[in-house]
Each structure stands twice: as C-alpha cells, then as structure tokens.
C-alpha cells in the first residue's frame, strides 16, 4: 500500500474512532487537545478536538513534510532578503547565504526558524503563496478538513488555522516519513559551523519522546505536537493554547500507554486459521498473515476477527498466493485487515492418488 494512501486511511480512522477519555482518567490545561495511537488512528483522549485554533509554529510540521515530498535534500538554497529579515524565531540566516535544503529543515524544526520557513517556501514553491498552495493541497490529501494554511511559519493570519484532530493527522503522517522522523528526533546538531538545539524539551525530559514541534505566538498561546514510543507502540499528543503543555503531554502519555496497550491482532507469518480445500490431497490448508496488525486495547475490550476468502479454495493451490483477508472489527466497526496467504502447496486429490499408484522405474 502506498504511503500516501495509508496516510489517508489513517486520517479516516482518526475521524471515525473519536472517543472521550474515561471520566476522571486524565485532564489538561489546554483549550483543545487530543491523544492518538499513531499506527492505528484510534483516538484515546480528546478535548475540543474539532475547535478551530491558531497553531503557531506547529505549522512547520507541514512545511517540512511538503519540502521533503516536493524538494531534494541536497538542493542548494540561496537565502533571500525577505527570508533573512523574517520576524520571530530564527536560525539567523544571512542574505545571500547558501545552504542545503536539508540544513534548512534542521533549522526549521530544531530552531523553529521563521527565516528557514520562508527560504524553504521560496525554493520549493516559488513563493510563500505558491508554497501555501502546496501545503493546502497536502492537507486536503491527508483529510485535514478543518485546516487552512496561509504561510509556512505559523505567524498569525485569519486564513491560517487548524484543529487538534487535524494536527494529529498531520503528526502521524510526519512520523511515518523516515526523513522527517529523523530530523524531529534530533536533540542537537552542528552543520557548517552552525549548532542547532531542538526547542522540544520533551526529547530530554521524557523517556520515549521521539519528536515533533513546539509553537508560540501571543494570540495562539503555547502549542505543542509530540510523539512518544513505548514497547513498539507510538502515540501522538496535541495541545493547543496550553500554558502547562510539557506536564500535560507527559500525563497524556502515562494515561495512554497504561490504559491502552497495543494488542497484536496478527503477526507477519502467523497462522490465523485453517481453511477447507476442495478436491485436494489434504482437506485443509493454513491461512498465513501477510503483515502485522495491532490495535490499542483497554482492559475488557474485545476485537473480533472475520475471515473473507476470495473464493472457495480448490486444489491445486500454491504456497504464498493470496487467498483472502482477515478483517478485524471493534464495536461493529472495521479497524483493520490483513491479506491471507496460502500456507502450503496442495495437489489435486486425483494427482496425489495417481502418484501413489505409480510403480517405481
């Protein structure tokens, strides 16, 4: 499955599996917040998650994602006067300075450089307006239905906004991009004599934090999008307009990992079931999972499995051929599926009998 298609499907799941937190389980100081399982899309906690909000420099997650998709990391970018003189947080670019796109991405995501954002936008999109168009096209592709981008840096603008839910969709897409995931997990880096330190304090203060992005303007307040991993399970937290965001994110992760541990529904190579074979030398054949599927499951919750064969299995059968899918449902809704492969070669019954009767030599 293509990564872009997978991202769209994940966005759909984040929209479908919205749910409130258990009463009294966790709370935040944020105006809007959400906690999502990054791989399944299940929402584990939400608070005003669909309220339209200013998002400040968390915008730069989209800026980086678009730049990586549309640009070339080794491209040389010449810094314009407009980029160098951009207000706000900065990586201190100079007019005429030449850097690679990759270096600018580190300055964007670690230093939160508004100057880097403009330089990237001008290089990749031709202009800030052209780049904003690419940002909005990507948002639409990801299913971010309540989001609008007007600039690459997140400076306040009436046409620049999002929601906690949409930002969770973006964060999941970002963490599924290997290049971007590597950049946002970096605490400090020195490139060309310029040392850049990540503004995301959770990388240092919280075990398991693996990224993403901080933000602040006076109008937006403190905004924070982060991702944490524990025992192979990844969660994404978003808080908007939250003066206690560091502590709130840690509390959200403690709640999520302890209450909704990831349950393995299928493992690559695992036999999920046996299926009857018509006209074969054997009467059944194993059905093997072609991939791994997990789902965050609270105590007492149950996931159902349904086997869907493409057609009745009739010999001859070849090991490794796709024969159907296993469909997983929770509370009557589909939460995932995995291809099923034929677990062995099966000869026709007649051929098997003939081979048994044949005399040697």
Describe the SSE topology.
Layout: H1 3-16, E1 32-37, E2 43-47, H2 60-70, E3 76-78, H3 81-84, E4 98-100, H4 101-109, H5 114-125, H6 128-142, H7 164-175, H8 178-184, E5 188-191, E6 194-197, H9 202-205, E7 209-217, E8 221-230, E9 233-240, H10 245-259, E10 262-266, E11 271-278, E12 284-289, E13 293-296, E14 304-309, E15 313-314, E16 322-330, E17 333-342, H11 349-357
Parallel strand pairs: 11-15
Antiparallel strand pairs: 1-2, 1-9, 3-4, 5-6, 7-8, 8-9, 10-13, 11-12, 12-17, 14-16, 16-17
Helix pairs in contact: 1-7, 2-4, 2-5, 4-5, 5-6
Protein name: serine-type D-Ala-D-Ala carboxypeptidase
Binding site for substrate: 213
Pfam families: PBP5_C, Peptidase_S11
Report on the architecture of this protein.
It is an enzyme of class 3 (hydrolase). This is serine-type D-Ala-D-Ala carboxypeptidase. It catalyses: Preferential cleavage: (Ac)2-L-Lys-D-Ala-|-D-Ala. Also transpeptidation of peptidyl-alanyl moieties that are N-acyl substituents of D-alanine. The structure is a single chain. The chain has helices at residues 3-16, 60-70, 81-84, 101-109, 114-125, 128-142, 164-175, 178-184, 202-205, 245-259, 349-357; strands at residues 32-37, 43-47, 76-78, 98-100, 188-191, 194-197, 209-217, 221-230, 233-240, 262-266, 271-278, 284-289, 293-296, 304-309, 313-314, 322-330, 333-342. It folds into 2 domains: 3-260, Beta-lactamase; 265-352, Peptidoglycan synthesis regulatory factor (PBP3), Domain 2 (Sandwich), CATH 2.60.410. The strands form 5 sheets. Strands 14-16-17-12-11-15 form a 6-stranded mixed β-sheet, with no helix packed on it. A 5-stranded antiparallel β-sheet has the order 2-1-9-8-7, sandwiched between helices. Strands 3-4 form a two-stranded antiparallel ribbon. Helix 1 runs antiparallel to helix 7 (164-175). Strand 16 (322-330) and strand 17 (333-342) form a beta hairpin. It is built from 11 helices and 17 strands. Helix content is 31%, strand content 28%. Mean pLDDT is 92; it is low at 1-8. It is of the alpha+beta class and 361 residues long.
């Amino acid at each position: 499955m293509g990564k872009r298609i997978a991202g769209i499907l994940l966005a759909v799941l984040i929209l479908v599996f919205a749910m409130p937190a258990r009463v009294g389980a966790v709370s935040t100081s944020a105006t809007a917040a959400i906690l999502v399982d990054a791989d399944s899309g299940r929402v584990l906690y939400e608070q005003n998650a669909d309220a339209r909000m200013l998002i400040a420099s968390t915008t730069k997650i989209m800026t980086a994602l678009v730049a990586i998709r549309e640009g070339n990391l080794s491209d040389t970018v010449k810094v314009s006067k407009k980029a160098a003189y951009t207000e706000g947080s900065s990586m201190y670019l100079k007019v005429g300075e030449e850097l690679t796109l990759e270096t600018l991405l580190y300055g964007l995501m670690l230093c939160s450089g508004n100057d880097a954002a403009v330089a990237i936008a001008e290089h990749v999109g031709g202009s800030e307006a052209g780049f904003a168009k690419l940002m909005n096209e990507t948002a639409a592709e990801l299913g971010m239905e309540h989001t609008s981008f007007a600039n690459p840096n997140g400076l306040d603008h009436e046409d620049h906004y999002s929601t906690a839910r949409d930002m969770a969709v973006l964060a999941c897409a970002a963490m599924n991009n290997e290049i971007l995931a590597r950049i946002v997990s970096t605490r400090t880096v020195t490139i060309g004599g310029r040392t850049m330190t990540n503004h995301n304090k959770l990388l240092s203060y919280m075990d398991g934090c693996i990224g993403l992005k901080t933000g602040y303007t006076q109008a937006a307040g403190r905004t924070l999008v982060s991702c944490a991993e524990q025992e192979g399970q990844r969660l994404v937290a978003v808080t908007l307009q939250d003066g206690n965001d560091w502590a709130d994110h840690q509390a959200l992760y403690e709640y999520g990992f302890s209450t909704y541990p990831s349950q393995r529904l299928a493992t690559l190579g695992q036999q999920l079931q046996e299926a009857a074979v018509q006209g074969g030398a054997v009467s059944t054949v194993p059905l093997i999972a072609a991939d791994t599927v997990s789902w965050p499951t609270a105590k007492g919750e149950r996931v159902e499995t349904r086997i869907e064969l493409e057609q009745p299995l009739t010999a001859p059968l070849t090991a490794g051929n796709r024969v159907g899918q296993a469909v997983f449902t929770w509370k009557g809704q589909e939460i995932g599926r995995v291809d099923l492969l034929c677990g062995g070669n099966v000869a026709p019954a007649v051929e098997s009998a003939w081979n048994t009767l044949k005399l040697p030599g």
